[in-house]
Amino acid sequence: MSTRRARALAATLVLAALGTAACSEEPRQDATDVVADAQARDYRDGQAEAQRVRQAQRALPSPTSGVVEIDGIDGALTAQQRLSYVRSGSATDVRTAHRGEDAAFASLCAGEVDVVDSTRTISAAELGACHAVGLDVVQLQVASDAVVVAIKNETDVGGDCLSTAQVREVYRAGSPVTAWSQVGTGYDDVPLAVAGPNRENNAFRFFGRTVLDAPDPSLINLRSDYRPFDTDQGSRLFVVGRERDEDLALQLRDRSRERDLVKSRLEEHWQVVNDAKAEVEVARAEVAKGERDQRPPAQQAADRARLVRAEQDLARKRELMLTLTDEKDGVVARYDAAAAARARVQRTRGHVGYFLFSYYELFEDQLRPFEITGTDGERSCIFPSQRTITSGEYPLSRRLLLTTTTRSMDRPEVADFLLHYLDGAGAAAVEAQLVALSHGDIEQQKDWVTGREAPDLVTADAQEAPEQAAPAPASGEPAR
């Protein structure tokens, strides 16, 4: 050890000894006392915070009796459910505004509205604002929505899982992707063509906002060769082709055999006609020769009879030739139609479109959906299903939510309106081509509203990972 280090160590020991001696002259505090003091401070702080929250809650505006205030987006179900509630004879005045989700959540936490109509959950910051004034938040789900990106069933382009970034790259304006091999590793070198609904379709707006990050999507957000269709059927036929083409394509082998057979018969009959023509020429020559040679009348009569028979036989064979030619033309036309149909069917292999999940369900025997991986970087490959869409696991889905507070749910008029909404949510979702919740999920949420069961409060822990899927609902469908 060096001299400098030795001196430093000695000085440290001396100071430690002096400090110990000084401390020994003061009363020692027991460890139990330290814990008790900390607990007392925590209690005082907790009481002060509780008092502050109570004061903040008392400062909230008092709700108007007989009025339910709703704000947020112009949701797919709320307008209809409000009208249904009014027609039920209720005296409650349900007022709706559409100032957007951010403003609506701010108003909820300020005690100014009872319900937020949204497709996103309350953020951690917004939840903190609610908790700061003593408001516990409850989230009700009334339906779900999703788009499915699909190719033709029983076809393959080399892969079955796309990330949201890959879907965006395929559809975005200026996309350079013209073959599936450009989409990602493992995809086949098959020409790619895209289609989907026009701007009037709900799927167009949902896809534009969710995939293309376009708040007000239009055709300029999509690649120039995007094929917009007025109907979902048009998009589907672009992807899967027409059933008639499928039927014709399946007939191609039989049509090919028929074509070859009739061509062979026609070639054989040409020889028969040529032989008949040769016989006519021979018979005609014999008649001429008999006249020159002055054959007996009986022989000349026989020669002329031979010529008549030969000409009649040639006429019959020519008639049959015309019949076979017409038959050949018909068979060739049918073959050409089948070949063209098969070519159209083969071209649909690289066609891709997107559809609302409710429409895809009607034609899942014709459409093959891609599994989708979200934006978190992990290859999750979620298959679109009732369960994964309702839970929010499927990345191209959104949940239709009503967010309220226990303070508002305790108001009879709010509870009555929410019960009416939940009662009609299933049928309304089906009518609006949305994904309806299971009966069990609806009934559980009704129990929250009526107080038969304590509601699941939205917590800060749940908001720390907003992109994670919610617990799977009781729909009974296995994950894929």
Sequence-ordered SSE layout with sheet pairings:
Layout: H1 3-24, H2 31-58, E1 67-72, H3 78-87, E2 93-96, H4 101-109, E3 115-118, H5 124-132, E4 137-152, E5 161-163, H6 164-171, E6 193-197, H7 202-210, E7 227-229, H8 232-240, H9 243-250, H10 252-293, H11 297-347, E8 351-356, H12 357-362, E9 367-369, E10 371-373, H13 386-391, E11 397-405, H14 406-409, H15 412-431, H16 439-450, H17 460-463
Parallel strand pairs: 1-2, 1-3, 5-10, 6-7, 6-8
Antiparallel strand pairs: 3-11, 4-8, 4-9, 4-11
Helix pairs in contact: 3-15, 4-5, 9-11, 10-11, 15-16
Question: Could you please describe the fold and organization of this structure?
Answer:
- It is a single chain.
- With 480 residues, the protein is an alpha/beta fold.
- The protein folds into 3 domains: 158 residues, D-Maltodextrin-Binding Protein, domain 2 (3-Layer(aba) Sandwich); 129 residues, Periplasmic binding protein-like II (D-Maltodextrin-Binding Protein, domain 2, 3-Layer(aba) Sandwich); 92 residues, Helix Hairpins (Orthogonal Bundle).
- Helices cover 54% and strands 13% of the residues.
- The chain contains 17 helices and 11 strands.
- Strands 1, 2, 3, 4, 6, 7, 8, 9 and 11 form a 9-stranded mixed sheet that branches.
- Strand 6, helix 7 and strand 7 form a beta-alpha-beta unit.
- Helix 15 packs antiparallel against helix 16.
- The longest helix has 51 residues.
- It is elongated, with a radius of gyration of 41 Å.
- The relative contact order is 0.15.
